[in-house]
Design goal:
The protein is α+β, with helices and mostly antiparallel strands and about 160 residues long. The protein is built from five helices and eight strands, in the order H-E-H-H-E-E-E-E-H-E-E-E-H.
Length: about 160
């Protein structure tokens, strides 16, 4: 499966910038694995049989939760694209049920970037593209939002 933007580029259109969802989407899964390791450590360190079984069961549940969240984050990153060409902005999300949004560069009025303190430290944030007569819903957890905005506004 090729990238969506490569399938829809018009003759003479050039891809200027491409990004995806930030790796922070893996954080719930990683935290689940850390909690699973903590439960596992408690299970191995205790002598109480009931507590040992409960801790091991909790470790298994948390490890499965972590794996599911990491898989979910990977799938979201794999199926989401944010692209800027010399003519338009393209956002694609989804695999089976695909959702795309496009806006011609001539229609862009402003690009807002919203970043938390953690977002500024890890370089992710929310981008809102406002156009003439229309606007996009916020694009959440995009990687390198300032660079994405700069490629839109620097024409």
């Amino acid at each position: 499966m090729g990238r969506y933007i490569e399938e829809i580029l018009q003759p003479g259109e050039k891809l200027l910038y491409s990004t995806t969802v930030h790796w922070i989407v893996y954080l719930p899964g990683i935290l689940g694995w850390v909690a699973a390791l903590a439960a596992l450590a408690i299970g191995y360190s205790t002598e109480n049989g009931t507590l040992k079984v409960l801790a091991m069961a909790l470790a298994i549940v948390l490890a499965l939760y972590g794996a599911a969240m990491v898989l979910r984050g990977w799938f979201r990153r794999w199926t989401t694209e944010f692209d800027v060409t010399d003519r338009r902005i393209v956002h694609k999300a989804g695999f089976v049920r695909r959702r795309t949004m496009e806006m011609n560069m001539d229609k862009v009025e402003s690009v807002d970037v919203i970043q938390s303190i953690l977002g500024r430290m890890l370089n992710y944030g929310e981008v809102v593209v406002r156009g003439v007569g229309e606007s996009w819903e916020p694009i959440l957890t995009i990687g390198s939002p300032l660079e994405f905005r700069n490629h839109i506004t620097a024409r």
